[in-house]
Design brief:
Strand content: 15-25%
CATH topology of one domain: Rossmann fold
CATH architecture of one domain: 3-Layer(aba) Sandwich
Number of strands: 12
CATH class of one domain: Alpha Beta
Length: about 350
């Protein structure tokens, strides 16, 4: 079996659902269930013998030690992280504790467990660390996309904490020989995405008749990766990746934020028109940009394609349509995640931004 951390969050839950659907191998799913961890994401797995959920923190040394000793997983896939840049600006210490201290404690437990294994199990064990393209910093308009050789230049407390965790993972391979793998992905989108990020926030606000807040001039560029494609890439890296290597995962979809917002509005105009027959674009509002906002990210995923034969299955057009339709079909899920704490956060983050 494998141990997945952060498996009730956005990317982690999609990975868990796909893993259970596509393999016969059991999975232990550890999640702290902070605001972005949601057991509703895993509702279809209730009673499934292949899925064991454990609520807990990757920084809980004794809990991790017990889980490893009892279940002896052949791999650990680490999704657990604080991941929202805006939140890292308001509360950076949470990111230090989870992304740096938590990853260190998980690595240390993994190293100690790995050293107890027999020769064959030890050779086959893997620690896969899921990271982000934001560790590479910001690109200029004409710069080539990030490769695995780009130096780290993180510009937010979030990306700095992820960069630190990446360095720790690398060090455990070079110092102790722990067979690690690291993936750095571009912006994910798809089902179960907590509506503080751009795409789900635009969908949720549009349907609620609220403003669609766009930072600055809306020309910040990101590469967009459908979450199911990301999950298939992680499975492939876990299966065939070379220990110690880093693999960038991208969708080959560079889009400006305002283009994303307009696309979402166009799809909603088609699939769920406003009662007054006006376009949802009328709700777009430009607000003060966030501090230190990186201008452009872009992922060069050719190493993953060439060495492991992976390519994304979705284009942006197919993936974004599936995403918008999922939110339209799952309004109860949306209502449940918009708790009091969510509302307070949205008000805190946007109230001070001038239109």
């Amino acid at each position: 079996m494998i141990l997945v951390t952060g498996g009730a969050g956005f990317i982690g839950s999609n990975f868990v659902l796909d893993w259970v659907a596509q393999t016969s191998e059991p999975i232990i799913n550890l999640d702290k269930l902070t605001y972005a961890g949601n057991l509703e994401n895993l509702a279809t797995l209730q009673g499934n013998a292949k899925h064991l959920f454990v609520q807990g923190d990757i920084g809980d040394i004794e809990l991790i030690k017990r889980l490893l000793a009892e279940h002896k997983p052949r791999a650990i896939v680490n999704f657990a992280a604080e991941s929202h840049v805006d939140r890292s600006i308001h509360s950076p210490e949470d990111f230090i504790q989870t992304n740096i201290v938590g990853t260190f404690r998980l690595l240390e437990n993994a190293r100690q467990f790995w050293n107890t294994l027999g020769a064959e199990a030890k050779a086959n064990f893997r620690f896969l660390h899921v990271s982000t393209d934001e560790v590479y910093g910001s690109l200029k308009q004409d710069d080539p996309a990030f490769t695995e050789e780009n130096r780290y230049e993180p510009n937010s407390p979030y990306s700095a904490s992820k960069a630190a965790s990446d360095h720790l993972v690398r060090s455990y391979h070079h110092t102790y020989g722990l067979p690690v793998l690291t993936t750095n992905c571009s912006n994910n989108y798809g089902p179960y995405h907590f509506p503080e990020k751009l795409i789900p926030l635009m969908i949720v606000n549009a349907l609620a008749g609220k403003s669609l807040p766009v930072y600055g001039d809306g020309q910040q560029i990101r590469d967009w990766l459908y979450v199911k494609d990301h999950c298939s890439a992680i499975r492939r890296v876990l299966e065939a990746g070379k220990p110690g290597e880093v693999y960038n995962v991208g969708g080959w979809n560079e889009k400006a934020n305002i283009e994303i917002v307009n696309t979402v509005c166009n799809l909603l105009d088609e699939l769920r028109p406003r009662a007054d027959n006006k376009t949802y674009k009328a709700q777009i509002t430009y607000v003060t940009d966030r501090p230190g906002h990186d201008r452009r990210y872009a992922i060069d995923a050719r190493k993953l394609e060439k060495e492991l034969g992976w390519k994304p299955a979705e284009t942006f057009d197919t993936g974004i349509r599936k995403t918008v339709q999922w939110y339209l079909d799952n309004q109860q899920w949306v209502e449940h995640v918009q708790s009091g704490s969510y509302t307070q956060w949205i008000e805190k983050n946007y109230a001070e931004r001038k239109t």
